[in-house]
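Appendix B. Raw example, untouched.
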Amino acid sequence: MPFPSSDLEKWAAQYACSLLGHALQRHGASPELQKQIRQLEGHLSLGRKLLRLGNSADALESAKRAVHLSDVVLRFCITVSHLNRALYFACDNVLWAGKSGLAPRVDQEKWAQRSFRYYLFSLIMNLSRDAYEIRLLMEQESSACSRRLKGSGGGVPGGSETGGLGGPGTPGGGLPQLALKLRLQVLLLARVLRGHPPLLLDVVRNACDLFIPLDKLGLWRCGPGIVGLCGLLSSILSILTLIYPWLRLKP
C-alpha cells in the first residue's frame, strides 16, 4: 500500500507516539505527560488524514490498471485490494472533515469502523496475493530442483516420493515421512523468500498492518503496545520501499 513519503513519516511518528504512550503508562509516568503524548498522536493522525485527500482517486486509477493483468488471480486480488483502499481513504476523508470541524455532525465512530473494515479487506487481499505468488515460486523452485536432480543422476531418498523413511505399509512410517515433507516445504519457503526480498518485505508489512484493523474492530484485542510496534515497523518497511524502489513488489 504505497503512500507519499510525508504521509509515511507522519504514520511512523504517530505509531511511535502510540508505542511511547503505552510504555509511559506501564512505567507510571505522570498523567500530564501521557496526555501530551496522546494529543501529539491525535494531531499527527489528523495531519496524516489531510495528506490523504487525493489518495482515493489514485487507488481507483491503480484498480483500473490492475484490471488488465493477464493472471486471473493477481487481477482479482490486486483490483479488489485497490477498490477497498479507495473506500478506506474515502472514509478517512470523511473522518478528517469531522475532526477538523468542517462536518461536525459526522458520526466519527461509525465512519472509523467502516474505514477499518475496508482496510482489513484490502490487507486480506494483499496477503492472498502474497500467498499465491509464494505458491507459484515454490512450484517453480521445486520443479527446478527436480530437473537438477535428474540431470545429476540423483533422486529422492528411498527411491520414490512416497518412500524413504517408510512406505505406506511400514508401521510408524507415515509420521516421519510427513515430518520430512513438512521440513522440506519450510526450507523451500525460506529459500523462495530469501531469493525474493520484495515479496518477503510485502508479507511482513501486510502481516504487521493486519494487527491494526483487527484491534480497532475488536476482532482481536492486542493492545496499544502491539499496535504501535506493528504500525511503526510497517511504516519503516514502507519508507524502505521509497528509498530502494526495487524492494517494492510488482505489479
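End of appendix B.
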